[in-house]
Amino acid sequence: MGKTKPTPDHTTKAVEANLKPAKRKQWVKKRDEQLKDFVSLADTAGFKGRKGKAGKVKDEGENNELPKSLRNSKGGKASGRTPVPKEKLLKYSRGDGMDGSGVKKNVLKAKLERREKAIEFSTEQAARLEILLPEDTGYLEADDGEVTRQFDQSQIADSVDITSASKQFDLDLQFGPYRSNYSRNGRYLAIGGRRGHIATMDWVTKKLMCEINVMEEVVDVRWLHVETMLAVAQKEWVYIYDNQGIELHCLKQLNRALRMEFLPYHFLLSTAGENGWLKWLDISVGKIISQFNTRMGRLNLMVQNPYNAILCLGHAQGTVTMWSPNVKEPLAKMLCHRSPLLGLDVDRTGQYMVTSAADKTVKTWDLRMMSGPLTEYHLYGHANNLAFSEKGLVALSMGNIVEVYKDPCRNSVEKAYLRHKSNGSVTGLQFSPYEDVLGVAHARGFSSVLVPGSGEPNFDALEANPYQTKSQRREAEVKSLLEKIQPELITLDPNTIAQVDVPTLQDKVEAKKSILFLKPPKLDFEPRKRAKWRSGTAFAAKSKKIVREDNVRKFVQTKSKLLMEENSKKKQSNNESRNVLDRFRPKK
Predict the structure, then answer these.
(1) Alpha-carbon gap, residue 125 to 2, rounded angstroms
(2) What is the pLDDT of residue 24?
(3) What integer pLDDT is reported at residue 535 of this predicted model?
(4) How far apart are CA 430 and CA 163, in angstroms?
(5) pTM of this prediction?
(6) What's the CA gap between 310 and 323, in Å, rounded?
(7) Rounded distance, CA 492 to CA 208, Å?
(8) Does 207 fall in a domain?
(9) Is residue 578 part of a domain?
(10) In what ranges is there compositional bias, type Basic and acidic residues (predicted)?
């Protein structure tokens, strides 16, 4: 019989037996070296193997201060994985557990033991999770004599793990300048070129979803509530495409749009037009909710406030106006600069706003007070694009240079945190949700830039899940439709919805006075259907007459009661003693 080829299921001895003597020695030598490297690596990491059949792993730091549930039978900590520091275990400990000595029934005793094991496991897992520090974000730290802005993307990619390094890439495309947009969960990317090029992709796995050319000017792109629907503002109208590039809808009501924003909790697609029109379209029903002319000229600068779904528009007069679909006038108007605005963005908490103007200045504002700027920076160029990250970092672009500043709203920053030079003039900036990545759209394509410390490390899977499956996506879509917020609730202060509308004392007095000059209200009453012998017109007319007379009687009684109160007050005033100074009293 011939030799069988070694398969992945063969053991080490089988593989060694199928090799020739010369190659066998080389293979054994290489295997021994790998084992030595693995053992040394395990020792440095704190892992210890078994000492034999009867040997057990000994813990070096036995501590009797720990609860019994976190100690083994000999008094040490629970063996197995790398030991957890005692301070962390004591922090999450729930005290000594129940030993079950007083429980007589075996079923209840086993149930109690399972519960204690679950508590022990959860305590250890909570302590291990704190060691990983998932709430803390890592930033670039420079040595003495260095600054973080001198590090380029190649140096950062070489210093991080291979997964993070793969998130830094450049797309050299020929149909620019481009506009880009990340989906809500940060997993999908859409880009649109001015010369008609549209592409969507899973940028983490680099899987292309669709790529088309509409042979028409593309002004802006925007993901809707799911990654299977993409809104594209083209030369004349707004089109909706699916993730395969198939046209689903043509929204001719949204014409000549320059910028788009999608409000995910209200299912509203907002557009700012070239002719100054601001429109809101409900994509769940396909109807225009509100539209009006702002009378502020060309609208090429629009962002949304994620806190209250208010749209912020930047104008050539240096002002920022805030709009709601319920009011035809701006809810608030701020004079931010003395020159035309070039950039505008609001952070995800809705507290801070950053603006840039043609006078080479950048200002940060507190939207809760709407007073003077918190900080003001003078740049060496015009900041055309601005973007907030989830952790408060601000990115701005000047030509083909992108600079990132670390927390410029709360502190006065003198130097940039990071600097990147792109291949072309930058036309759009956006930080990827839940990732330390900045998306840069420019005239020559798209660049994904690593910005350590910019992304939120924790995500709510019920809110936006980067790893959701198809069934989870469908379930989330149905749930969001059921929980849809009506556009009438969009206000500058969303907390006013929870307040109670209590009429004031003056309102009550005015309502009482108005009754004296009113006629009895007409009552539109329809009697209910009865048996055939009582459902004639005579019975119906009689029932209507009875109800109307009762209504008039109640109204007259209320009116007469108020008249009596007024007359009693007049009598009291007449009985009062006269005084010379009475002529200065207000006339009744």
Answers:
(1) 53
(2) 59
(3) 64
(4) 21
(5) 0.70
(6) 6
(7) 40
(8) yes
(9) no
(10) 1-13, 84-97, 579-588
For residue 403, what are its two tokens? Answer: 């600079």
How many structural domains is the chain composed of?
1
The position carrying tokens 């490390």 is 457
Q: β-strand 319-323 against 375-378: which pairing, if any?
A: unpaired
Instruction: Retrieve residue 342's tokens.
Output: 């070039």
The predicted pLDDT at position 312 comes to 96
Mind listing the pLDDT tens digit for each residue in 474-491?
A: 999 999 999 999 999 999
Inside any domain, residue 167? yes
Q: Is 150 helix (H, G, I), strand (E, B) or coil?
A: helix
Better-predicted residue by pLDDT, 79 or 396: 396
Residues 487, 488, 489: CA angle, nearest 5 degrees: 90
Strand residues in 308-416 grouped as ranges (E) = 310-314, 319-323, 332-335, 341-346, 352-357, 361-366, 375-378, 385-388, 394-398, 401-405
CATH code at position 202 = 2.130.10.10
Measured CA to CA in angstroms, residue 62 lies from 97, 127, 352, 448 at distances of 19, 17, 50, 49
Q: How far is CA 379 from CA 103, 341, 387, 581, in A?
A: 75, 15, 16, 70
Q: Which domain holds residue 176?
A: 148-478
Model pLDDT for residues 19-47, shown as the tens digit of each residue: 555 655 666 666 666 656 554 544 544 44
Could you report the per-residue pLDDT of 108-146, keeping only the tens digit for each?
888 888 888 898 888 888 888 777 766 667 788 888 888
Q: In this structure, what DSSP letter does residue 71 have?
A: B
Q: Looking at the predicted structure, is the pLDDT value of residue 325 above 90?
A: yes
Return the sign of the alpha-carbon dihedral for residues 137, 309, 345, 220.
positive
Each residue's pLDDT tens digit, 161-180: 899 999 999 999 999 899 99
Residue 430: closest CA among 343, 362, 308, 360: 343
72 within some domain: no
Amino acid at 182: Y
